[in-house]
Amino acid sequence: MAGRVLISTFGFDERKVLRAFRAVPHETLGLVLSSESQRSPGYRRLRDLLAPPREFLVRPFDFLECFRTTCRAIDSFGGSDVTVNVSGGTKIMADAAVLASFACGASAVHAGDEVVRLPLLRGVRLEEAFSRDDRAVLRSVRRSVRVEALVSSLVREGVAESRARGSIRRLHGLGILDLRIRKGKAYAAWAPEATAFRIALVGDRP
Amino acid sequence: MVGGPLRNGGARTTVLMATLGWRPRTLIPSIQSTGDVERVVVYHSAHTKSRNARSKVVRFCATLDLPVAPVEVPNAFSLLDLAKRMRSDYQAERKKGATSFRFNIAGGTRVMSSAALLVCILEGIPATYVHDDTYEEFSLPFLRINYADHLTGRQKDVLRFLLDHRDTSYTETGLASALKLHKSTVNHHVRELSARGVVETVRDPKDGRRRIVRPVEAVELLLG
Fold this sequence. Notes:
heterodimer; A: six-stranded mixed beta sheet; elongated; B: alpha/beta; six-stranded mixed beta sheet; two-stranded antiparallel ribbon
């Protein structure tokens, strides 16, 4: 086990990482940063002070990639008490880290002039927003799938047909699933806008 | 719930909320792409460039005959104050009858953007990002998680009491007395709430021997 973990987004200013230290006692430090940040003087100063942190490289202007990587960083310390400091790096890195904390049930702080704990309930993951039937639907949708085949598959898993159809409609209404008609048959797929949910709920499979 | 697209072909009245920095171009794509925008609420700072950007947005909206409500925030770096203000405005819009929302969180300071994202998470408002260079729009649909549902009734009682009596320092013993509960019961709930990250137990600055229980500053946002 890694003990208590602090994961911090990092751009060029090591003070944004260090400010979180007093508020977030930890045994293990992780950094979410770009390769450019690794060449900065702030990074060298940080490395001079501390034992080598675990590092998770991101493209700092790619929201989904930042989100995916931060989720992976949080989950890599599985079972540990993880807090994410979102004050470093680009705006996109920071927001992706907020979203990743929410999705993965981690605590989050913003270490600016004051350290503010964000009101996200530790341990409550994104999947809590979905019913058990909804989660069964979402796990079963990989690429585009015929709705009738999807319903049959869910029924075999023990979901009542009416609940399966209800979940599919609800998820479509929420913009999580796309429903399209092709050659007279209805097909369901993850909506492109829901990619972040897909990553958080079922991993980044095609 | 969620301000997503209807499927019944009914009329839409979408309120578009947005954080704005120096560049109107982070907001305009959302006005272009969101159908049936009823009005725009724009949060910006007192910086000259932000005010200039606001003026451009107001003129653009006037050209489209689109009502816009600019909100100049007193402090563009106070996460909780910003989140409270945005959430309060959202709830006021809902009371006025608005049923569909979208929040463009691309502009403004990093803190403004994070505050807006937090409100989107807590209220289930679909959020939109606009890429800095390509101005490509990226949407994040949100589902509202009612965090209060994940706390027991007793935990909520303890939390509400602490919030209502912020100005008084309570030890666990004092809390038990005030709530007329057994100390071990209070101890159990405080431990659970602490594990959830919503209260903390700290040394009393006035008397280092005492340990007082206090709610995390942002927890009012969580309870709504």
